Amino acid sequence: MEKKELFRIMAVADGSMLRELAQPLAEKYGVSVVKAPAKTLAMIKLREPVKNSLFYLGEALVCDTVVELGGTKGTAVVMGDDFDKVSSMAVIDAAFNRQVSELDELKTVLQRLSMRQQREQELENGLYAKTMVDFQTMDQE
Length: 141
Known about the structure:
By secondary structure, the chain is of the alpha+beta class. It is 51% helix and 30% strand.
């Protein structure tokens, strides 16, 4: 599992679920906080589709932290100010970096979570699709 996919799944996941995954890892390998969770602002960069140029949309409140799990660092940044969630994310990141023995089980749980998130997103998209207007059909008389 790539880091981008890992963090996409964790960013959408519920904080309590991530805490349940991170807690046993923290107890087994020991966690030390390198940089305590803190609120900060991050610039949101977007690509303008007409000229294909980058611009900054504005700032977003994020929370970030750095931890060590058994001597291996893990980092996390998430939108919002949920310190518990970002700490759990950093512990899971450190577990991936350390290649802990529980990694296969952790990947399986996260892949199941990803599939559930995808199903929920498809259901939500289906609700919005019902309200779409096709302007092409309005031109035909």
